[in-house]
Amino acid sequence: MNLDFSLIKQTRFKNHQRNRNWILLIPFVIITLLLVIVPLIMIFVKSFIKANGADSVGDNWMFINGFVWEKILISFIIALITTFICMIIAYPFAYFLSTSRSKVFRTIIIFVATAPVWTSFLVKLVGLKTFFDICAGFDNSTYGHIWTMIGFIYLYLPFMIMPLYSVLSDMPKNLVYASYDLGYGPARTFFKVTLPYTKVALISGITLVFLPSLTTVAVPQFLNNNNDNSLIGDIIVSWGESGLTNDIEMASASALSLVLSLLMLGAYGAYILFYKVVWKRIKLKRGAKNE
Fold it and tell me: 288: Cβ–Cβ under 8 A, 6 or more apart, which residues?
């Protein structure tokens, strides 16, 4: 009887825990539905419904031309270069910071590195542009996409540093020491131990930098004074603003957002396909040859 009563208590406790976990998920589910799922459904529906004043649904997709594809390509290239540079800067910075023994030094450096995150997006852009103009000695001195990339790096570098630093600071040092004891040098230890250990943090940092760099607005308009300074995010926002009075423009903005989302999903799918299928097969073949 005592055993049965104990089992009943354990079962009740587990059921209570399970119900409480579901209750805790309710706010997240509601926010996800309202701020993610519903907007995505509205974008999809708006893209395939005939807009007011349009002759057909095809008018929603009239934006598909060389100009838009060029802007998408430029935006992708700028986002890739920005992400790569952020990774090259952030990884050694986070690594050497995590190896520092002084907690005060690490706190100060983290404070300085994350300072751009704490201020207004607009204030940061104005300050950065003013700094460049002062260095050049005249106003509106920045021309070209290179200045847009510098702005992206300035704004989004902390989002690459923090995930890497968090993981590297918690990485057991015994793994590195064991690698050295096995005869691995610093370079081989990095590629065999440190890099695989921080893979998830690196992917998180890449995502946090690449996606905003691809779709952000205002940065090109502030830092690139060329007439063709707009990127794909600026075009979507411009069409969305025009869509307040023009339903065709709103439908085109929705369709363009859908195309951009599909391209990003396609890029992610290509990465998964390469990593999960091609790269693993290459590693298996190399292992078989070594044996």
Answer: none
pLDDT tens for 59-85 read: 778 777 778 888 889 999 999 999 999
pTM score: 0.80
Four-CA torsion 207, 213, 216, 217, nearest 10 degrees:
170
Euclidean distance between CA atoms 196 and 188, whole angstroms: 12
Determine the distance from the C-alpha atom of residue 284 to the mean position of all C-alpha atoms in its chain, rounded to a whole number: 31
**Nearest one of 68, 67, 33, 79 to 255, comparing CA atoms:** 68
Give per-residue pLDDT as tens, 227-271. Answer: 888 888 888 888 888 877 778 888 888 888 888 888 888 887 887
How many helices (H) and strands (E) would you count in the chain?
Answer: 15, 0
CA–CA gap between residue 220 and residue 102 (Å, rounded): 39
**Torsion-angle region of 171 (φ positive above 0: left; ψ -120 to 50: alpha; else: beta):** beta
Greatest pairwise CA separation for the chain in angstroms: 89
